């Protein structure tokens, strides 16, 4: 099994189990409120980690490169309330143009 | 999925004496389905660049059906670590545990039906099904979830098959599309101070861990930041 298929199989199985867990096991019951709050914070913490590791980290070091410029442009687009798809396009175009220019 | 772009749900436009139908859910999901298809095209094309065949790409979309986790898994896999790719995807999908619990009352029937309908819960369908008072509508959930599911699977298939037409994704700046997408997904989720603190802490942990750990591990380590939610 290749690395890609291993990831596909494991992520698929895990996600099916995660999504089924609430409806199958817990019915209408709730988690304790504090546990629920921690669960909700997982997404912002992980997304922020993904943002920095893919924009200002390269080979384990902090670097500013064309991707960082693209991310800065995306940040401005978000401040201007651009729709998600446009934000992504702005980042890609900025990075592509910066690569041509630098 | 374009997690986080979801608008508040509720059935305001369709409320009245009649109950919401599957069609109401499907119709509410159409604007999201358009955005989702854009990400699906991108995901399909990008997954091909990490040596994932078109069949694997489509199987992943059909079984996982969670955009940000799929993007994360593929981008971490591109750095070479299978275990970190799987862990990052699982941690990103962990929010579907509380979301599944919250909407569980709307998902009734035999175990196999609850299992299948549970798969249709994504950020957008969950928000569309939310009545605004903490309860959820089963028909809107299924209608919206089905439309988003088809949009996601079909668009990733098209993206995966058309990947060769894109050429080098770096030349097009597509490597910068990943962090921009994650930033956009995070944006609506950091409105309150606690979530913003978790995001900042998560980013700091990831940067601090990067020089000392294999790729992917910094992202998993960042999950520790969610523990600020345990504080009163």
Overview of the molecule:
Chain A is mostly helical and 102 residues long. Helices cover 75% and strands 4% of the residues of chain A. Chain A contains four helices and two strands; from the N terminus they run H-H-E-E-H-H. Chain A has a two-stranded antiparallel sheet with strand order 1-2. In chain A, a hairpin with a 2-residue loop joins strand 1 and strand 2. The N and C termini of chain A lie far apart (41 Å). The model of chain A has no long low-confidence stretch (mean pLDDT 88). Chain B is globular, with a radius of gyration of 18 Å. The N terminus of chain B is likely disordered. Chain B has 232 residues and is mainly alpha-helical. Chain B contains twelve helices and no strands. Chains A and B meet through helix 1, helix 2, strand 2, helix 3 and helix 4 of A and helix 1, helix 2, helix 3, helix 4 and helix 5 of B.
| Helix content range of chain A | over 70%
Overall 3D form of chain B: globular
Rough shape of chain A?
extended
Strand order within the widest sheet of chain A?
1-2
- Could you tell me the radius of gyration of chain A in angstroms? 19 Å
Using only C-alpha atoms, the radius of gyration of chain B works out to: 18 Å
N- to C-terminal distance of chain A: 41 Å
SS-derived structural category of chain B: mainly alpha
Average residue pLDDT of chain A? 88
């Amino acid at each position: 099994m290749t690395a890609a298929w291993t990831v596909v199989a494991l992520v698929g199985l895990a996600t099916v189990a995660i999504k089924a867990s609430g409806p199958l096991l817990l019915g209408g019951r709730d988690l304790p409120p504090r546990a629920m709050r921690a669960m909700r914070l997982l997404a912002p913490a992980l997304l922020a980690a993904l943002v920095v590791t893919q924009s200002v980290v390269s080979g384990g070091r902090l670097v500013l490169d064309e991707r960082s410029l693209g991310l800065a442009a995306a940040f401005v687009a978000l401040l201007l309330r651009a729709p998600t798809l446009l934000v992504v396009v702005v980042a890609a175009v900025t990075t592509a143009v910066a690569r041509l220019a630098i | 999925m374009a997690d986080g772009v979801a608008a508040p749900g509720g059935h305001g436009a369709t409320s009245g004496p009649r109950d919401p139908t599957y069609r109401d859910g499907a119709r509410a999901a159409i604007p999201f389905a358009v955005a989702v298809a854009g990400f699906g095209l991108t995901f399909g094309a990008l997954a091909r660049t990490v040596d994932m065949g078109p069949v694997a790409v489509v199987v992943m979309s059909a079984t996982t059906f969670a955009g940000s986790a799929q993007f994360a898994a593929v981008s971490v896999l591109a750095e070479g670590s299978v275990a970190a790719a799987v862990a990052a995807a699982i941690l990103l999908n962990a929010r579907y545990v509380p979301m599944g619990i919250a909407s569980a009352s709307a998902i009734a029937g035999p175990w196999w039906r609850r299992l299948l309908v549970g798969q249709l819960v994504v950020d957008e369908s969950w928000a569309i099904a939310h009545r605004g008072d903490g309860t959820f509508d089963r028909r809107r959930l299924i209608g919206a979830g089905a439309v988003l599911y088809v949009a996601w699977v079909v668009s990733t298939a098209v993206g995966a098959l058309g990947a060769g037409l894109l050429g080098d994704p770096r030349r097009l700046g597509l490597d910068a599309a990943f962090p921009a997408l994650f930033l956009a997904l995070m944006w609506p989720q950091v409105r309150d101070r606690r979530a913003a603190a978790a995001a900042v802490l998560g980013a700091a942990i990831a940067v601090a861990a990067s020089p000392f750990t294999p790729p992917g591990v910094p992202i998993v380590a960042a999950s520790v930041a969610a523990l600020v939610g345990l504080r009163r």
